[in-house]
Write a structure and sequence with these properties.
With 218 residues, the chain is an alpha/beta fold. The structure holds D-xylitol-5-phosphate and zinc ion (ZN). D-xylitol-5-phosphate binds next to strand 2, strand 8 and helix 7.
Length: 218
């Protein structure tokens, strides 16, 4: 079994001091840094874009796990690549041609992720599973941190894991939204091997990031 990896979302960090927040996450044992990019159109919230990612790049060598909640996404992929993304995850609804966007990300030598909103079935991306590095399963409706985990998504994670085993494919199963100490083992048992978490990592146990990362992993 693959080691469980933790991808803390800086969305729950102090936006006036993101460089220092990333250093804290690195010291706390984060495996990568989850960067939530929102456009106020694909999701009802706005966050950051390539210039901020570029300026954060110098604070860590950890991979940047960039979750693009923007539409149309295709024309921005190159900019996010140049800014220093390592994994670029897009939503299938946000591009006119999923295959073209996957190929573009690959041609830039970045890892490709496809994300499934709570109402988006696995079938929407099934034929691309052979070409991608990860599936980001949303366990909340994207747009905001601090929302409640939607437990019925556990079945989707289990189904995805079943497909992964049956097809012998190697994509990561990453979960995003409302992950905490009550559901971390449920998503891991269902088949997830990368856990995104913002609120739990930054706020629980008085913001003891190291402890929270360790607790989520186990
Ligand atoms: C939601 C984002 C998540 C979110 C996770 O749209 O994609 O990454 O920031 O934050 P928590 O862990 O607070 O749900
Ligand atoms: Zn995210």
């Amino acid at each position: 079994m693959k080691k469980i990896q933790i991808s803390p979302s800086i969305l729950a960090g102090d936006f006036s001091n993101l460089g220092a927040e990333i250093k804290r996450l690195e010291r706390g044992g984060a495996d990568m840094i989850h960067v939530d990019v929102m456009d106020g159109h694909f999701v009802p919230n706005l966050t950051i874009g390539p210039p901020v990612i570029k300026s954060l790049r110098k604070y860590t060598k950890l991979p940047f796990d960039v979750h693009l909640m923007i539409s149309p996404v295709h024309k921005y992929i190159k900019k996010f690549s140049e800014a220093g993304s390592d994994i670029i995850t897009i939503h299938p609804e946000a591009t006119e041609n999923i295959k073209e966007s996957i190929d573009l990300i690959k041609s830039l030598d970045k890892k490709v992720g496809l994300s499934l909103n709570p109402d988006t079935p696995i079938n929407a991306i099934k034929k691309y599973l052979i070409e991608i590095n990860l599936v980001l399963v949303m366990t909340v409706y994207p747009g905001f941190g601090g929302q409640k985990f939607i437990s019925k998504i556990l079945d989707k994670i289990k189904n995805l894991k079943k497909i992964k085993d049956e097809t012998n494919l190697n994509f990561d199963i990453e979960v995003d939204g409302g992950i905490n100490f009550e559901n971390n083992n449920l998503v891991i048992d269902a088949g997830a091997n990368i856990l995104v978490s913002g609120t739990t990592i930054f706020k629980d146990n008085n913001g003891d990031i190291k402890k929270n990362i360790e607790l989520l992993r186990s």
